Batch of 4 targets.
Target 1
Amino acid sequence: MKLIFEQSAAGRGTAYLPEIDVPQTAPDFKGRETPLRLPELSEIQVDRHYTALAKETRGVNGGFYPLGSCTMKYNPALLEDAAAQPGFRDVHPLQPDAAAQGCLEVMRKAEAYLAEITGMDAVTLQPAAGAHGEFTGLLLIKAYHRARGDGERTKILVPDSAHGTNPASAAMAGFEVVNIPSDGKGYVDLQALKAAVGPDTAGLMLTNPNTVGLFDPNIAEITKAVHEAGGLNYYDGANLNAIMGIVRPGDMGFDVVHVNLHKTFATPHGGGGPGSGPVGCKDFLRGFLPGIRIAEEDGMLRRKEAEARIGDVRSFGSNFLVAVKALTYMMILGREGIPETAAGAVLNANYLMHRVKDLYPMAFDETCMHEFVMTLEALKEETGVSALDLAKALIDHGIHPPTMYFPLIVHEALMVEPTETEPRETLDQAADTFRAVMEAARQHPEEAHLAPLTTRVSRPDEVKAARKPVIRYDFDHPMD
Amino acid sequence: MHFPKELKYTKTHEWIRFTEENKAYIGITDFAQDQLGDLVFVNLPEEGDALTAGESFADVESVKAVSDVNSPVTGTVLQVNEALQDAPEKMNEAPYEAWFVLAGDITDTEELMDAEAYEAYAASEG
């Protein structure tokens, strides 16, 4: 496929605007000395180029996408309809409150529903992604300790099974990270936790269900141990889809949470974004919240700021249209549908797990929540075929690979999260494919290293792509 | 998994082999490569760089994660095993041949374990 720059021909550009026929203002304005080297193509060339690119992409719309921990659920089309309403689509953040009452009402409702689901008292929609939410939540914890005049709490405890973003966010927020080991079943090692908490503990970051897809049965004792030491509990909402409407982080003893609207609340991931990672907190942290606080005065909704706010974590209120989509999703599901969704996610994961577990050893062989982790250590030792090889082989069968090599505590890990949006037929087909791929790997291990065979590029050099990415067209040295 | 008797080991899973002229080869242990999984990249220092005992001097990337490699000694990098950069899988296949650097001018050393002590330590970590 040619790059758009390589298709460019001088003078072919499509000009819809007439030549300027009024005097130019701002005579002192120093513009560019050379014009931008934009590619010049006819409209149909541009359309075909991006259509071709779109065909190369892989989405939930293209097939089964069991990327563990990412909750790649289907995004209902109705959400796009809601976000495309002109009143939402065309609003500007600098419009006066009086001209944005409907939008403020959407934000207030979305905040209230998210607070209800997470068991929190207040929510900010400002953070623009999950990790951004973690960072924001940690700043709340920092502000809380600082406001009490306690400068000794410099440490954030993170279990060794955590998402990599947890220690990274803690470091970004200026904390020292203390690793807490997990026990033989993937749960937080209570003894190790109790030994680690103390007067220097600012807080604990925890995902529950945890990253091996199990609900930690000691959760109340864990959060209590941190509270008794004077720390706060942060809930990483990455796995909220398994429990929403059934059990609330706020009732488990958490003080701050973030939720990933693009996971649990069916808004688009990545390219379809932008993202959104709202943060909720208990009442005693409300005053520190960033972003806009919405209050009703004389029958009108007004944008306010919290009195002891930590400062904005981005410009303006939120990625508003994502909030519109998430609110629509919550309203479609309602009080009954939200727990049913969680139950469906857990049922689907357990169904698929049981259909493959005689061939794929489970890292922790028990009833899982919304996802399960398999370990292919034995396969690797016996045949040389790795988790990576099997993941690549699945591509040839139309399945997006599961998450690989995560969590770090499991060797040769493949993590599968089917989500509640898949029908049983898809799960059966996927199970058959997983089984066929494993049998083929055992019979012809040498061929397993060659997959995928059906893609334009088989195995890109991932190290080089990450360390020396080519992300800018070089006019002087065009690629061949 | 094996731990040659003639080597010394650190708590952060590096091995060190002292030569007669107070120089030392440094690499990562069999246990380290097993824990990390397939190694795909190594970031090495340059000749002449200073090494500080207990501090990172290189990093390795596996299919799982990027990890620091700490120096067991304070000294200077005399030689770098450039061949490792083109064949990072050598760290998996033959961890005790896949040395990272040859260190010299050694003035200080981390607390080191012999093979037996390290084997017991690695077993408790695994």
Note: Chain A has 16 helices and twelve strands.
Target 2
Amino acid sequence: MTVTNTPVDNGVNVDALLGVRTALADTPEIAQFQWRATCSWVRGTHSRSSVDTFYGFGGEQQHKTTFTYDADHPLAFAAEDNGVTPVEYVLVALASCLTAGVAAVAQQREIQLHSVRATVEAEMDLHGILGADPEIRNGFSGVKVTYAIDADAPREEIRALVAQSQKRSAVYDVLTNPTYVTVDLA
Amino acid sequence: MPKVTTVVIGAGHCGLAMSRCLADRSIDHVVLERGEVANSWRTQWWDSLRLLTPNWLTRLPGYCYQGEAPDGYLTAREAGQLVADYARVIAAPVRTHTTVTSLRPDDGGYLAHTDQGSWQAQAVVLASGACAIARVPALYKKVPAGISMLTPMDCRNPGQLSGGGVLVVGASATGIQIADEVHRSGRAVTLAVGEHVRLPRSYRGLDILWWMDAAGVLDERYDEVPDLVRARNLPSMQLVGSSERMTMDLNALSERGIRLAGRLTGVTDGHAQFSGSLPNLCALADLKLGRLLDNLDAWAASAGFEGAWPPQRFPPTEVPSFPPLGLDLRGGEIRTIIWATGFRPDLSWLDVPVLNRKGQIVHDGGVTAWPGLYIMGLPFLRRRKSSLIDGAAADARDLTAHLAGYLRLRATGGLPPRNTCQT
């Protein structure tokens, strides 16, 4: 049997990503992006959001298809549980952003991944959103992400993957730092 | 109007190292200095500031520290004296109290206007320092009235601060030293920590910079690092010079009672907001330190060097479980904010189009796109040690070699006329 060195392949095109970074130096304006979603009320706490276009690389962009997402509250809140709660979408966003980062950083560092699994737990005190205690915030009091990663690398290098993916994660930044948010009537 | 082959702007360690290298090649030049030699070292800093490099590492072309404490750390004033001694020893052609007011291309060379007349030159070396102006983030504008705001350049010692709590923003070499000293003056200190470079003062019984120098880490070249943008933007190493050789990392600061917070990310309605990312920034710094120590141990093993002590590893940074996410700046707890958020050069007088859209000079290892225009002393200019005094020698030699080649090309007509390189 011949042993060959299989190139590391996590399915991430790192060369393309680095190419974008190089291109940004000459044309910084193509870095200006706008992300969009629309959300329509269905009934009760049930809503349906859809995402299909965004702006970036200097022009209008379109996803392959229109993605839709149902959100609702669970039965225990006397709702119909037609979808996960909005705060759970935040967990999905954080975990998927960090996981994409782990894959990209691993590719760049030539670490072959075999499996990556993130478990996200977010603590919340309902006194906040129910308005029962003004000293308690509406949002999470803390978010904990735990990764189980099987990869061809020593544990310290895997720890470094996870740390670097946080450093470059948009959703991690959104959650850990303040953001201006304005909500207007059209 | 006086003509000279090369004008060097700034008589600090970089400008003088360049002067010495130019003299070695018999290239006539003048060094223009706005104040006295080593002006910034003498005038600009916190009274107790010491170099973070041990004295033996203070090596300049044809000169080095010759005092009796090679393992000590010079104060800023002493460093100023050393640089002044160097200027005298090498008989550098310095024009003191000569402030450059503009530098522009002229007739195939350069024209430097100063408050003491003008100079024509074929080549110019900018050596006026990477730390001329304290950088302060724009959010300072939102800090409520009643809070005093200072930079490390504005204050000399904690006695100049009003009473009450102090928020030190930035945990680089400057920030940690100021935080510690203000804390020792009896004021409550909160330290806002962004990205930082954690280092122990000593490793295996020797100064960490001895290891980094011996193992070649400080010599790492700008064209060899994987991410030069990142390398050039790294904050300074968390090191202080003290006779006790203290390690001043975040653990040491926490133990003394300094409160750690995440990066200062905003000020809204009088409230300072801190990032919740502190645990990851500490993890990144711990991991980076671990990799450095691995490399140093590997170097020691391959070089057959057995340090005084066996390999060491340091406990991870202890991040408080709930570092503050916000602080009411109107509540009276914080009376002073010290912005230890870095420095930048002052090139406001530079009338040559070599700046990028962010106002930073574009260069390749100190060589700008304008033939004959060079810059020195910036972080990772050509090597990891470019921002240390010890880095000036190698950079000055390299740039002098390039500059000499440029003068040869000019002399043989090998250069295109300047106006064809423009735009």
Note: Chain A has four helices and six strands.
Target 3
Amino acid sequence: MSDPNATPSIELEVRNLKKHFKTPRGMLHAVDGVSFKIEKGKTLGVVGESGCGKSTLGRAIIHLHERTEGRIFFRGRDVSDVDEQQLKDLRENMQMIFQDPFSSLNPRMSVSQIIAEPLLIYNKCRSRKELTAKIGNLMDTVGLARRLSNSYPHELDGGRRQRIGVARALALNPEFIVCDEPVSALDVSVQAQILNLMQDLQEEFNLTYMFITHDMSVVRHVSNEIMVMYLGSAVEFADSEEMFLRRLHPYTQALLAAVPIPQIGHKKGRSLLRGEIISPIDLGEGCRFAGRCIYAKENCFDVTPTFDEVTLGHFVACHYVREINNLP
Amino acid sequence: MLKTKSQPEERENEVALGGRSRNKEIFRRFLKNRAAVVGLAIIIVLTIFALFPGKIAPYDYAAQQLRNKYMFPSAQHIMGTDEFGRDVFSRLVWGCRTSLVIGVSAIAIACAIGVAIGCIAGFYGDIIDNVLMRIIDILLAVPNTLLGISIVAALGNTIPNLILAIGLGAMPAFARITRSAVITVKEQEFVEAARATGASNRRIILRYVLPNSMAPIIVQVSMGIARAILTVSGLSFIGLGVPAPTPEWGSMLSSGRNYIRDYWYIITFPGVAIMLAVFAFNLFGDGLRDALDPRLKN
Amino acid sequence: MNKKILEIKDLHVHYLTDGYTVKAVNGVNLSLARGESLGLVGETGAGKTTTALGILGLVPNPPGKVIKGEIIYNNENLLRKSDAQMRKIRGREISMIFQDPMTALNPVLTVGAQIAEVIRLHEKISAGDALIRACEMMRLVGIDDVRHDEYPHQFSGGMKQRIVIAIALACNPSLLLADEPTTALDVTIQEQVLDLIEKLRRERGASLILISHDLGIVAEVCEKVAIIYAGEIVEYGTAGHIFDRRAHPYTRGLFDSIPDFSRKVHRLRPIEGMMSDPTKLPEGCFFAERCPYAFEPCRKIVPVFEPEPGHLVKCVLVEKGKAPQ
């Protein structure tokens, strides 16, 4: 099942991934044909507003949702279709950190029990002593005091809870972690602590992250590359610096312009957007963003734009990207 | 070992695994709830009665002293005697054993089967859910007492048959309650997190879903025992319960009802006993539910 | 003319639970001029929402209790008002926009009816006239008024928050409290809602207290800013004071924690540790145990200093002129 084209440094590759949900109102195109690669030890930031499919994308990759179409390659191996045992092996290497540290921890388990779960499931420890030693080390690694091992999640604040979530994800020494809005439920000062922690862990263990967020300043801080999603498909993909220097898609431009900056006098020009996000049910042809785009022309509504490399490594899905940005 | 730069917290002592002696904690929280402690005290007294009736009852439950019929409560017979001159207190103590055994075993059966069905139906959903729940619906459509009457009437009124009859009648409620709790809990993010760490369905059900669905089940157990005691009493009252001369609270009520105008104590004490037992189990169940929930601190 | 519409003096609010006293608000002093907008910035548990509920007389009691202080609105102390008097003030004089538009609306009433209800609570007008006014309000917040007989679930999140704003503004209040009004919304929608609040506030000359944890939003909307920590205002001033010449170490830490949008830094500089347990606050400066500059005098009572007119800072370092630059 190995893929001859994959280079060894590519940790994860996703090709034309689709995930559709059946709803009473029709087929919901949560993720609709997304492709990307992440290099080992790097972070891909996935940004977009609620309902753009970024969380579903992350969950489809680690098989929490079964994908509808497309292929997933992990370290060059096709892991799109796996049986139960292969899935278990796969999850040893692909873990997830969840958004809400309040609901992603079992309220009936103590901190040590939560961190022990993956170790027990994978029979990683031969003795109780080894297990407690491992838990202790993990707690040190994420900066949790060992005296908290007996506490229950509800007794701790959001930052400490998220550290538990990080420790649980690290327990099996995974190589790849899907981080689904790991700091958006936290206060800014705590958020910075967790972001620093995740950065340290990445450097230490050479982890690869897929970092899902709606927060533009966070994504810039953590990512090497950024993918912007809108209604289930990628509209722009580029290196992080490149993206903040030259955003080419009108949606990315509007999204970044809408972020309030903590400086006075930074009030920017008026909105580059109109209307609100629609729900991706039974979508036909055409650019999904056309309805809100201030540059939209007639064929935007009829022809789906392709995801083209406009400049080196910078992909955009827009018919008029060159006209809008005065590119040759 | 592993070291990182972000370590805002000091390292201290060792890691404890099982949660800080969890039972002690639960017990401490339970003791803080006065009503629950009262309930527990009553249950303990009833349990002692049920375990050692011979030691506590001053007379044999079947010993008739026809000369001492309808005696008013006195030092010799603290609750008086009945129409055969049997000591009401002794019969109450022995009857406690019958009522508790039937109530507790019936609910144990109901709970085991009902929770299993509810869990599987709720967790797996779809066709499994549909099939199991329609069976439960059919059972629910038959009134408990009627089900009890038919089973006992068909199989004979022995204690095991009574347990079966009452247990079967109480089971659908457990299945329904468990299913709805499971459906709520399985949607929560920590279940997804468990799946992401590689936990099997079995493990997810037993360690994640069930413990978080316990609250309504515990309440149902305590209320179920209370209701089972009432049902036994009811069946005995209409003559389908425990065969004579085995004492049972319901049959004591039933046989004493003819004398309620002249000798009120024959019927009052068993009535109070039933009421107290039901009350105690309800208080205890509520208290236990709160104590088991680590989120409700203090 | 810069007449004060609201002045809070030494407000203390405690919550009593199971023998513990949670000191949520510990001596908040604030004042707000007519037509002014104030941003109240702080983290979870800092006492932002409790302060707002205090102004509205809605601190849940029990367990909450206003221990002392004065809330003077238009020269009258709101804490001395009866429940009936407060009911007349809420919604008409002072109204509030809540964080979550999904739960702030009644799901079984049409949105038109919900707006009209507020109007009829405070004004003697017929149901028909109230509905006409409700439709005007809907147009004002940018929603087609033919939708007045639709239910909340038929609207998107941003639209619902517009309706919540319409309800809050229906009686022309002179003071608007907005508690994290855009936290539940996407950033592109947030922009629209903030613009709307700001536009309507200016048109109607209302004052605004915007409660937020997001300094970016406050920078866009507010003229004055108050930074609240552990139930105390640690720094207060104009937006210029706070954003350009902030002096309190906590305020500085807060700004340093935000990943900079315009340039990439390798590491963030978070404030170490956690906010003190509000049941056992330390003596002296509440921030001292997390403060990198703390020294002996911080353990004693910390007075408020005014390094420049209108800029108040509760920190010893500021008095000594030792404030880190």
Note: Chain B touches chain A at residues 1-20, 22, 188-190, 192-200, 203, 207-208, 211-212, 294-295, 297 (CB under 8 Å).
Target 4
Amino acid sequence: MGGYGDVKLLRDDGSRLDGRQVDEMREVEIEAGILPAADGSAWVKHGLNVAVCAIYGPMEAHPRKIQRQDRAVIDVRYNMAPFSTSDRIRPGFNRRSREISKVTAEALESVVLVERYPRSKIRVEIEILAAEAGTRCVGITAAAVALADAGIPMRDLIVGVASGKIEDTVVLDLDKAEDNYGQADLPMGILPTTGEIAFLQMDGDLSVDEYNTCVEYNMKAAKEIHAIMVDALRRRYQSSNGGGK
Amino acid sequence: MVELVPNLLKQELEKLAENDKRIDGRSRWESREITLETNCLYNAEGSAKVVWGETVIYAGVKFEVRTPWPDRPTQGSLMCGAELRPVAGRKYEPGPPSPESIELGRVVDRGIRESGCIDMDSLCIIPGEKVLGIMIDIHVLSDKGNIFDACALGAIAALRTAIVPAERFDIGEDYPLSVSMTPTMCSFTRVGGRYVLDANEKEELGGEERIHITLGDQGHLHSLQKGLKGTFTPAEFDEILQVAQNRCKELADLVNAQEE
């Protein structure tokens, strides 16, 4: 988390700088099946974030040493486009994207029925095209919709959501300024049907009570985003439009 | 990943060509449908999304303040790069930039640079000390054939709608980048022995060499490239150049219509 103090993030009436209430998330739009070259794909706009995910597979796992005899391996690549942030980022992997890719893969392995596809590999390509705080969560949401679009069996969808703390107040879904100047950030990957948690990270400073409020907000948001994900998948299979957004 | 070229596909393409037909029913000089959207990404200073048939690409423009090259103290710079990341298709794998992606970026770069549509001297802030660098990054998300034309279209559309973030660099107020021309690219692939416009992924797989032509506003040539194994005759080139003249005008109109 960035610095504390000086920057004011809450207005006198308790609302946030962008006008949201503390337990209000940014607007979410989702389209499924937008990349014709992929076996499954999704486009997610969450606030000003834009993420695209493509799924390839299940396919033979190469190189052979990554194969598992009893299940599929999930190969996630989370990547930020050079033009996705205010300062251009150099193309290629860095430590941050490697870590996010790893924990995202582990979260997805907990929902995908990997034992159905021994010795195979499922490629999950997450591309962040515009970043405005919370991209790892947007990436997880996109990956879940894309996996479903690819027809890969899962126990549940998985929804990426985050809550955090600004000016000693717990808020849902931090935006850029709140992320930079806030006191804590708690991203989660939630299985909306069962309420289980498959992805968890946190940094900053939270009391136990504050943590509990964050979880409550995240659960509420997960249900809302879940409805949008399901709607996107329904629309996808109502029209056979291959191109779209 | 090595792609296998099915003999059956080659034979089918040859047969279709004999009857002057194409695998998806188009005529020889017919392009797929194109949707162009600009200003679609928040953090890019200029951006474009191109859906070209089933091929999908994004292009984004970023600026930086840098020191000029010693031999050109008043000139800014332009760089265009393309990334063929694994998201773009089954055949793409992670790793350092492939020769294909380098060729793609450089061919698009040359078309824009050599058209002279950016006045490099206008990018000077303090001679010898500070100039603006323009970076166009192209992200291929779905390769279903003819990514070259889609990338070139996205790049010029993103550039033409770019806003220089002068406030962020403390050099005055934000202003639109001045771009004096709309160079566009037209690519031809030899399929079943003859050239066709805008090959799709099957035609590329079963086809042979390709030719990329970038034309500017007056129909002048700004960049040419022949890729892959094969030869062509001057008469064949004359024929496709004629087609390119008309097609590039249409593409430029499509870009210019975005600005109103």
Note: Strands of chain A lie at 28-32, 40-46, 49-60, 73-80, 120-130, 159-166, 169-172, 184-190, 197-200, 203-204.
